[in-house]
Amino acid sequence: MAVTITSNKIQKLLNQKKNMDTINVKRFGLATGLTATLLYVGCILVMATVGHSGTVSFFNGILHGIDTTSIIRTDVSFWEVCMGIVEIFIIGWLVGSCIAAIYNISSKTKL
Question: What stretches pass through the bilayer (predicted)?
Fold first, then answer.
């Protein structure tokens, strides 16, 4: 049983290989931005549910010995929360897009 491979099939296989070596910049940026936003919303939930002392204990545990007592403020307005969500999404999107773009550029060059 002979298998015939046409030039179209070869071209499709080469294009698939090319697409596998790159990261979609917009999708990776979106994924990173949404992940950062989810982490921010998690932070909001922690601050809203456990109060000031619980929030300080939580973040002191995460930051391994850094005392966050003097920098944690729990009286955050709704407007500040909304702006924080938008800002963290934008920063996350930019970071993810930069990572994908740098990866794509570096994967084209031989190291």
Answer: 28-50, 83-105
Q: d(Cα 53, Cα 55) in Å, to the nearest integer?
A: 5
Of 108 and 18, the structure prediction assigns the larger pLDDT to 108
CB 37 within 8 A of CB 95: no
Which is higher by pLDDT, 103 or 10? 103
Once rounded to an integer, what is the mean pLDDT over residues 62-80?
91
Torsion of CA 70, 74, 78, 84, to 10 degrees: 40
Residue 15 has pLDDT above 80, yes or no: no
- Name the helix (H) or strand (E) containing 28: helix 25-62
Q: Residue 95 burial by CB count (10 A; 0-12/13-18/19+): exposed, middle or buried?
A: middle
DSSP string across 39-106 = HHHHHHHHHHHHHHHHHHHHHHHHTTT---TTT------HHHHHHHHHHHHHHHHHHHHHHHHHHHHH
